[in-house]
Amino acid sequence: MIRIGVVADTHIPGRANKLLPDILVNGLQQVDAIIHAGDWVTMEAADELAKLAPLHGVTGNGDGEALYRRFGSRKIVLFDGLRIGIVHGHEGPGRSTPERARRAFADESVDLIVFGHSHIPFMEKHGGTVLFNPGSPTDKRRQPKYSYGIVTVDGGSFSASHHYFSL
Fold it and tell me: Is 135 left (phi over 0), alpha (psi -120 to 50) or beta?
């Protein structure tokens, strides 16, 4: 079994957040990998997450050139046969963030699309693909709680869940 922590929109530093929240760091202690769907804002957020587990990510509209060079803006990663597309969701055609994320991989076969941008936790199946936005662990905006996700891969199947918390 493989456990993947899923994060987006950390925006560090930003507002009152200069570091990743302890509850997020503790929640990611036992994961085998971490996916970040963009809007890190500074390299420090990436460096902190990379200390916890192997890190895969993309950049968002709040990220600069150094982060783009390190991560790019779109990618597919493979875990035990599970193909995961990662994109921030701010670019491309479509009226909503989930629609833009889905269209980013329209010509490729992926099982799961991880995206961010809206800061709104989201999970929905479209055909054979699950769209998953973990929300934000540091900038919940109008959401009632902060959040991140965990994806569990086991024998070719997977499940995704949101983990909600207050600071």
Answer: left
